[in-house]
Design goal:
The protein is 55% helix and 10% strand. The protein is α/β, with parallel strands linked by helices. It has 2 domains: 59 residues, no CATH class; 163 residues, no CATH class. Helix 1 crosses helix 4. It starts with a helix and ends in a 6-residue tail after the last helix.
């Protein structure tokens, strides 16, 4: 099995400083090349099964990065958000369905953490996730403080104040949509209507003021968004 260090070294050697430029060069070299030429050129160009192995190793590792960001982000925030007499009752550091209602529950609060770098464009999946967390917190039967910790509040608030239809937001979550319809029927049709109704219950808190690493990532992403419309996380 190729190690992460070996995989990274192989890819770094192949890309020679810029993967985009390297691919462009190879495209030009292989123009009009036939079978025999490809076979001979691949060796000098560094194209081999081991290159694909290296890429697959890094891809598998990258799949765990978001889990690590989620866990590390919550852990680093805990000393800053917990009050003097506050104790953790339930903690969910992993991604996906962990069987726990929220990322964090203490004797004082229930909370969700969304470490999403918003771009400001069409971001339906991010919006859907945010609304789900907001809704579940807003409807939770508790007297505790309810919090959603986010990377910057500008774009989340823009969405929550916006006119996207609730049926669209919950179209991929039948369970959530059914629960919402059972509670409210036709009372609300767009996100802003429900948000105005429940906004006093849920605190939207910017974590970039506490964890500076997230502030730096947001600034980089914003700069990239200005120069490219195709960048994705």
């Amino acid at each position: 099995m190729v190690t992460l260090i070996e995989a990274a070294s192989n890819i770094q050697e192949f890309e020679r400083g810029s993967l985009t430029n390297r691919i462009s060069t190879i495209e030009n070299i292989l123009q009009n090349a036939g079978k025999a030429a490809c076979t001979s050129l691949f060796q000098t160009l560094g194209i081999s099964p081991s290159l694909l192995d290296a890429a697959l190793v890094l891809k598998r590792a990258a799949g765990q990065v978001n889990v690590l960001i989620h866990a590390a982000g919550i852990l680093l925030l805990l000393p800053h958000i917990l009050e003097g007499d506050e104790v953790i009752q339930s903690l969910s550091l992993g991604a996906g369905n962990t069987g726990k209602s929220f990322d964090l529950e203490t004797n004082h609060r229930v909370a969700e953490f969304k470490f999403i770098n918003w771009k400001g464009g069409p971001e339906s999946i991010r919006q859907n996730q945010l609304f789900k967390d907001f809704y579940l917190l807003a409807e939770y039967d508790t007297l505790k403080k309810r919090c959603v910790y986010v990377v910057g509040t500008e774009y989340p608030l823009k969405f929550l104040h916006g006119g996207r239809s609730l049926s669209s937001v919950m179209s991929r979550n039948n369970k959530l949509w059914t629960d919402f319809k059972n509670r409210y029927g036709e009372k609300f049709s767009v996100v802003s209507e429900y948000y105005e109704y429940r906004k006093s219950l849920v605190h939207l808190i910017d974590i970039t003021k506490t964890i500076l690493q997230f502030q730096s990532v947001t600034e980089i992403d914003n700069e990239e968004a200005l120069s490219s419309e195709t960048i994705e996380i």
